[in-house]
Amino acid sequence: MVEIQNLTKYYGNKAALKGISFTIKENEVLGFLGPNGAGKSTTLNIMAGVIPATGGSVKIQGYDIAQQPVKAKRCIGFLPEIPPVYPDMKVREYLNFAAGLKGIPAAKRKGEVERVMERLKITDVQKRLIRNLSKGYKQRVGFAMAILGDPPVLILDEPTVGLDPTQLMEVRNLILDLRRNHAIILSSHILGEISAVCDRIVIINHGEIKADDTIERLEEADDSGLVVKLKVQGSSREVPKVARSVDGVVRVDNIQFVQTGVYTYDVELENDGVRNALLSALLQHGLEVLEISTEKRNLEQVFVKLVNQKTKHSSLEDLLQEMDDEAAQEPAAQPAEDKSAADAPAEDAAGTDGKKED
Amino acid sequence: MFSLYKKELQSYFLSPIAYFVIAFFMATFSLTFIQEIGNVSSSTYTFSFSSIFYVNIFYFIFLLPLLTMRTFSEERKNGTETMLLSSPLNVTQIVMAKFLATATILLIMLAASLFYPIITSIYGRVIWSSLICTYIGFFLFGLVCIALGIFISSLTEMPLLAILLSELAMLMLILMDNLSVNSFLSGIPVLSDVLSWFSNQTKFYVFSQGLMQFSDLLGYVTEIAVFLIWTIISIEKRRWSRR
C-alpha cells in the first residue's frame, strides 16, 4: 500500500531525515513513534505531499507522490498535527467544501458528509461555527475531513491530542474499525495509545529509524527477563548474596532503602519457576519477605532507551539484547559488593552458599 | 478547483470584509461622481466617466489589499494550507482559484458602479463604447493589483503586513511613470523608458480615452501572469523549506 524508500530531507545543511525506509501493508495500523523534533511530522507531511522530499521516494498504492501527485493524493486521507479547519465556517459547510476539494462528485457529497459526521459523532454540531467548537471537536472535524471519500491510506498526525478519555476511546475504536479496509499510519509520542491500536511500530529519532517491529515481538522480547520486586527485612548485603545463590537468578540490582533493616530489590529471573526457589532460599536464611511483585519492563523504558541509541539497529531484539548488557553493567556500580557478583555470578555464589549451609 | 473557488468567494462574505470593500468603493465612486457633476457648470465642460475612474484608481490601492491580505497568510495561520497542499489540487490550481474568487469580487464592485452610467444615460448621453473601454482598463488594472496582493500575501503570515506591503507596491506600480519623468531619471533615457513601459497609469489613461491598444492589453496580462507565477513559485519555495 505505502512504500517509503530511503527518504531524506534537508533543511539547508541540517538533515531532518537521514534515509528512512519502511512499508505499510493493507489492514495494518502502523504506529510512528518518536520524541518531539524526531522527524515524525516531516515524514508524514512528505507522505501526504505537503512538502517535497530531498531524496528517496514515497509510493502510495504504486503512485509516486512526487511523480504522480494527483493520483497519489487521491488515495490519502491526511490529518495534520493542527486540524486544518476554517474557523469562519460551519462544520457541515466545511466538510462539504473538503469533499469538493477531494474531488468527490457533487451527487455523492451529501451522503458522504453525513456518513463521516455520523462516524465521528459530530452530527449534532453540524450547524455550529468551527470557531466556537472545543479542541476535541475540532480534532474530530479534522478527522472527519481525513476520512471523507474513504481513501485507502490514512495518515494521522497525533489524532488523539486534545480528546477527553471518552472521545479517546471512541477514536481508538474508530481506528480499529477503519483498519479492516485501510492502511493507517499514526504518529504519537504517547505509548499507551500506540500499543492500544497499532500492529506494528516504527521508532524514529534524529531522522533515523531506531526500530521497526510488531508489537507482539516487542512484547515477547519484553517478557524475556522476568523481574520481581522484593521487599525483604534483613541485611542489604546478605539478601543479594542469598538471591544470587539460587539457580536461575540473573541479577539483583536497584537496592533501595525503605526503613531500618528493610530494602527493596529488583531481581531478574530466568523464568517464573525460579520464584519459589528464591523465596524458600530467602526464608531458609531467616530473611523475611514482606512483599513480592512482578515487574514487566515498561514499554516506555524501551522507548526511551531506543531513542537515546546512537547507532542504527535492524531489529528490536538486537536492541533489547544490548539494553540488557548495558543494564547489567550500569546499576551494578551502586553497591560495591554487587559488582563482582554480577560479573561472575554462578560459581562464586555457589561457594558462599555452601559455606553458609555448613 | 471550483469548490475552492466557491469557498473562497463564500469566505469573503462570511466576514465583513467584502461588504466593507464594496461599500467603500461605492462611497468613493459616488463622491467623485457628485464632484464631477458639480463641475459641469459651463456648457463647454463635458462630463466624462474616465476622470471618475482615474480618481478611483488611487482609492483602489487602499481597498484591494484588504481583499487579498488573507488569501494565503490566513491559510498559513489557520494551518489549513496543509489541507490544500495535501488535496489533489496542484499549486497552480490553488492560486488560480483564489485569484478568480477575488476577481469575482472586483466584478461585483464594477457591476455595482454601473448604477451611475445607467442613471446618467437616462438624463443625458453616455458614450458606451468609451465607457466599456474604460471599464476594461479599470478591471485589468484591478486584476494586476489583485495578483500583486495575492503574491505579497503568500510571502507573509501577517495580514497587516500584507496590507501595508501591497499598498506600497501598488503605489509604486501607479507612480512608476511619475518617477520616470522626474528630472533625475529623465536624464537617463534608457531607465526612464523602461520605467514608463511598466507604468500602469499611462496604460489606464489610454484605455480611459476609449482606445484599446494591443500592447497595453498585453502589458496588463503579462503583469498579472508574472505576479501569479511569482505566487506559485513562492508557495512552492515554501513547501521546500517548511517543516
From TrEMBL, chain B:
Compartment annotation: Cell membrane
GO cellular component: plasma membrane
Membrane topology reported for the UniProt record: Multi-pass membrane protein
Chain segments annotated as transmembrane: 12-34, 46-67, 99-119, 125-151, 158-176, 217-235
Primary location group: membrane
Signal peptide: none
Domain named ABC-2 type transporter transmembrane: residues: 43-234
Pfam family membership, one: ABC2_membrane_3
Keywords carried by this UniProt record: Cell membrane, Membrane, Transmembrane, Transmembrane helix
Name this protein carries in UniProt: ABC-2 type transporter transmembrane domain-containing protein
Species of origin: Ruminococcus callidus ATCC 27760
Source taxonomy: Bacteria, Bacillati, Bacillota, Clostridia, Eubacteriales
